[in-house]
Fold these 4 entries.
Entry 1:
Amino acid sequence: MKRALLVILSASSAMATVLSSWACLADNPIIQTKFTADPAPMVYEDTLYLYTSHDEDNATGFTMYNWMLYSTTDMVNWTDHGIIAGVRDPHKTFKWADGNNAWAPQTVSRDGKFYLYIPAPKGGRMVIGVAVSDKPTGPFVDAIGAPLVDDPNSGGNDIDPTVWIADDGQAYLYFGHQPPLFYVKLNQDMVSYSGDIVKLDRIGTYEEGPWLWAFEGRWYLGWASTCCPEGIGYAMSDQPTGPWTFKGSVMDGDSRSSGNHPGIVEYKGSWYVFGFNYAISYPQTTTQPLPGGHTEQRSICVEKLSYAADGTIPKLPWWTTTGAPQIGTLDPYVQTEAETIAFSKGLKTETCSEGGMDVTAIENGEYIKVKGVDFRSGATSFKARVASAANGGKIEMRLDSQTGTLVGTCTVAGTGGAQTWTTVSCDVSGATEVHDLYFVFTGGSGSLFNFNWWKFDGPGDPGTGTGGTGGTGGIAGSGGTQPTGGASNTGGTSGGLVTGGAGPAGGAEATGGRFGRGGSSAAAGTADGGMVPSGGTGPTGGAVPLTGGTTATNDTGGVVSSSGGAVSPAGGSMSGGVTTSGGWPGAGGASTSAGGAPASGGAAGRGGGVPDVDAGTTGTDASSDKGGCACVAAVGPSASSDSLAVLGALGLLALGSRRRRPPTASASRR
Ligand code: FUB
């Protein structure tokens, strides 16, 4: 379904003129294929899962049938997992729900199960339900077949559940629209509670959307602050039940927005705040506020947050267009879902007959950006899983912008059906090192083809690259000493052969970089060559400078690293293991066949920079209703003073009328 720009925009040629002058969006908002709101991040194993509510494409007020799931391992490339629960067939998880208000969710894990808490309508009230799954991706089933909370004292506003499990095992559930705010203690089973539902006095600017968490012995409660526009406020306490001390704003409200809703989480050693804006349904500048009316076509954003020494949170500016920085890089030699996207223009996603999701509704000129792709020493071929009920089209692969260097073009022919899948392939040249990768789709009119997954091959692939045979020749010279701070260099000291192969050079990180998937040590060979540079081994993503990795001496089989992070067992062939001076570990990184575990992914050092902002997205699709960037690069003469004046006047009118109505269980709350 096409996404409609606001009527007010399409109705005004002056507005259309101004629209073409808006600065382009970059990687915030993080989801462009759908409207999403009420972010609820959850970390499980090495992945950050983001549960969201979902504004329908044609929503004006709240039109919300289901909850969605996205995931990331690098904070910028997000994989779409589709609908994980809902209140309407064919995704009616909660049979008792009798309306279309699938509002703000949160999922928490406990003892190998995942509990999804949601507000939904029942009998003219908003109540809280809970579903359970064995996996973060679902399927979720209603845990108790009835609401978990239906509080007669809440005025029908049992909304926005948030749960945190304290270190002593006690789980707390907060919820409620202001006034008031409530909490209750959940039982160990997470699907029932004990004791009274406690009503709290209003805290500071509390409006709705509570988010409970603890950090370093302190308790925090965030929320959407006084409407409208809503920012993000917060309070602190020594205990999960308060008393709470209001601490101000994590982020102030902004005239470009109406609502907001925090989701705050720690991931790979950093803290992030999620919320939403309206920048895709209504591209904005700092001087053009959101127009009036009930505009619930929201888009989730993310920023990094920090803590001061006293535990308070330094205030952030309004959502940037760049969002959070990338952690590590993306490995193009691993099969990747097409719906793993940093930013996109136009296209949509859908359930795929081969499992998971695919990218669909791809039209001429639309694109997908995948950020921070590490081609290492180079890709030579590309393959894609595609299906086309029409005549297909082409997939252009470009570097760093949708008009950037063309490194390959794959032709997609008709396959006879939109879910009749085939794999196409084509040659690639010029794709080395780290770039933002753009898949630019070209062809005739209408929907060209569907796109399920993609993968590159070539010498840069640590799994098949030339850099791999570390070990067999890797005599660890006598007396080899271990690298400072590194792993033991047993091979070196013994003077024996590095029998296990190893010296997985690529496992080393670049200066200032991070470990990638592969990590460092070889499985079978224990890196006798002494390959673990200072900073340790783990692929956990921690940035580990290679300062100590340079001191491996007398190590014909050992580690030698440069400031750029290259590490190579001299005896082993390591052509792929070279790291550039920018700090990107080489592909081969890895040890290989000879017994060393391939550091697939090698290290993903991140010394080099990747542009954060999309350059020059096209401005031809201002009227497109499929999301993405509908603008040209900068304010130009097309934004006449007349048109700006018209927009300004409308904006002021809109501001005057923009107030939210009190919540009810009806479809319109703002
Ligand atoms: O998305 C529906 C409602 O709007 C949520 O439950 C509130 O927090 C607000 O974001």
Entry 2:
Amino acid sequence: MPETPTVKLNDGHHIPQLGYGVFKVPAEDTQRAVSEALEVGYRHIDTAAIYGNEEGVGAAIAASGLPRDELFITTKLWNDRHDGDEPRAAIAESLQKLGLEQVDLYLVHWPTPARDNYVHAWAQLVELRDAGLTRSIGVSNHLVPHLERIVAATGVAPAVNQIELHPAYQQRDITEWAAERDVRIESWGPLGQGKYDLFGAEPVAAAAEAHGKTPAQAVLRWHLQKGFIVFPKSVRRERLEENLDVFDFELTDDEMAAIDALEQPGGAGRVSAHPDEVN
Ligand code: NAD
């Protein structure tokens, strides 16, 4: 299986462009699922304090025997920990659960605008990075006004913004803002979380058929060719393998354009919560 390519972040570090996300993987299944992911070749794991499964991720890392520098581990600061010194306490707890001295990427999970303390949280993450507790820092679910504010306040642009993104919901205002500032986009829900018939959409089915691949592989390829970072979730070994096996074919410009055209107007393709409503 070809090696997963890496993407260079704006702080000079590299991230594997495809990883394994563990949202909704039950705590008791996480060690097994992550161990299988590492066995089949994943080296990038995306978790979060709120997922409640950092210990399982840590147990799988420890059991793998893989050198630390071959792994890329992301976790996230939860919404009720933006204030005061809370981010420092929160990352310490995450590191303890993960069994690590440093994560590779730490994200502010949601801006929670009603709490209006995400600028402070971001400034705290800059300090956590400078203290060596995380190598890179970024945000998640930040809209352009949130991004503008944190950069204006600190002068530090996030390495990534992790946002809901799939063919029906492409958030082009954010991806364009990010491209102009060398901020990488991580697509969460890259397969639309199975909440609409993405795999049955004609351009996806046609591209899959043309390349002898599955619709899920065609969609993941679309993300990769857009330059996005992805970490699809599955707890089934055959799907873990399938989702990683996307580096031996390329969608044509016409196939990419046809999948682009699946975007729903006015943001109607969103399948999960809106960042202004999560507080
Ligand atoms: P996803 O789009 O990856 O969809 C996952 C679903 O797709 C699974 O339930 C699985 O049944 C199905 N699936 C996976 N591989 C498949 C395949 N090959 N064929 C058919 N079906 C397949 O959605 P997600 O899990 O929500 O997103 C991926 C990751 O993004 C998460 O695990 C998490 O790490 C991250 N995430 C982040 C946020 C955030 O707020 N930052 C929110 C949601 C998810």
Entry 3:
Amino acid sequence: MSRSSSVIVVHGGAFDIPREERDAHRDGCHEAMEAGWTVLAAGGSALDAVEGALRLMEDSGIFGAGRGSSLNEDGTVELDAGIMDGTDLAVGSVAAVQGVPHPVTLARRVLESEFAVVVGHGAARFAERTGVERCDSAELISDRERRRWEERRSQPDPDWAVTMFGARGGGDTVGAVALDFRGNVAAATSTGGAPFKPSGRVGDSPLIGAGLYADNATGAVSTTGHGERIIPVVLAKTAADMMSALHPQAAVERALATLGRVDGLGGLIAVDRHGRVGVAWNTPTMAFALRSSDEASGRVERSGPA
Ligand code: GLY
């Protein structure tokens, strides 16, 4: 079925984005949104649009994903990503994978396979088998993150959870949701996780229901923030379910309020099956960009940090 509207929303994380980094976060989100929009405008699928948008963000070095990822306690980049197609509820996730610059594309290969989740060394091998680009792990370590890791290491008792998810925390995980002209929705989320995390630690981002969800019956959601708090409230699925009765803006706000029960910080983006959008966060700032084309409302564009 052909629709008259199409939408993409991307986020670059919800946290206290330093003032001097806000322009880069806004521009990075905008560029990723435009990349996803180009796919949609050409009649491409929501799934291709969210993957394309996140590939750009994983390459940018601005966000805590792909080449901008923070380092774990061993000084290594370990990546998590998930992707979901609302058409048939197909899912693919990878976690704690090293040496893969585009974990969102690896997650897509998992989605296309008979599996749902592949982790660790097995995920890197899965990349090799399915022709997904690999690189030396060291290539994913940026100068910025190496410096931050050195600083944290020299502190007397570096505590990754406090550093990353302290009073004003959150994180610069990236995510995207889209609705295509055929009426299909998709969601994807990608992250390097929390700085100084223990090796093997996995947050919410690749977990279907927590870090992302997509169902043509309701809509698509991607989340960001403190994984250990987002997981117990199953934030993405909570918001998606609420969209069956509420406007997406009301749904994301009500879902975000559930984080209060676990003292959680974060944010989320959503698009429903009608093309309506929701964006909410409980951190000082959130980076996002959205574009929507609708016969009734015309082109809508909005972006933050806000
Ligand atoms: N939301 C990212 C993480 O907790 O790893």
Entry 4:
Amino acid sequence: MDLKTDWLKSGFVTESVEGIEDIHEAFNNLKKEKNAVLMAHFYQNNEIQDIADFVGDSLALAQFARKTDADIIIVAGVHFMGETAKILSPDKTVLIPDLNAGCSLADSCPPDAFEEFISKYPDHKVVTYVNTSARIKALSDIVVTSTNAKAIVDSFDEDAKLIFGPDRNLGNYINSITGRNMILWDGACHVHEKFSLEKILELKKDNPDAEILAHPECKKPLLMVADHVGSTAALLKYSEVNTSNKYIVATESGIIHQMQLKSPNKEFIPAPPNDSTCACNDCEYMRLNTMEKLYNALKYGWPKIDIDENIRIKAVKPIEKMLEISKALGL
Ligand code: 13P
Ligand code: SF4
């Protein structure tokens, strides 16, 4: 079977790995042969996190992609993470296991509409969350992640006029902790918006010793009851150094794997979503990635991230600016 033609036709990767007995060994051998590295986001399944050369949040993945000397970077995450890696390392081949691994938050910000939106505020600087397409980054003055958003917004003059997009929840949160009044694009992540405050409070009643950890993409009422709000990396760090032995985790449940590895004696409870019929605290885009797709992507060099060079040149500037400030701050 010509797998590559198959994928080109269908737009996504087949999972067929005929004749492979040990997929982990086969993948590692291929990685060595092709001088490739696998970087994985904290929301990947445990198997992928465990085989990855590097596991991190969005900021750490961008930093890793920029400095690796591998020829091929395989990004086990979602499409915008692959794009960010390619923008920063244009001479490297960047592979993602499944082209359908998108992001509802990035999709909530179509470039043409965003361009029209920002054109109404010509005297404003445009700050965008990394969960966006390359075209949105190309329209931005600076990119942020949830690890550095506060510090980067703080780095602007007090009277600077700012637009923030696409996440309204993160934008509102940053406004509240910086005292800014950024104009917000009305986007959101479907996973983080689905957590049920009511069920989380019930869970807290049954587990009064548990602390609530929440990602800033969650809605405001949940952030108000959280004991700690932060990026995936910040929540992981907090769960490691804090003295509580129990946590209710209001972000994608993949992060619990690293929390449990770092703190084997602590208990981590995934926060319940408002819809009990689905595993809504799993990001279905992140979870499209499988070991088999990773292996095939590396074997056939597909799906590959390609970015129009005119867009890349514009998009790299706000990302580099973010990395510069993060480095200066030790992030
Ligand atoms: P982090 O940068 O905190 O890892 O968040 C990425 C993300 O997609 C959250 O939904
Ligand atoms: Fe995007 Fe939400 Fe999935 Fe993060 S959890 S990748 S913001 S859809």
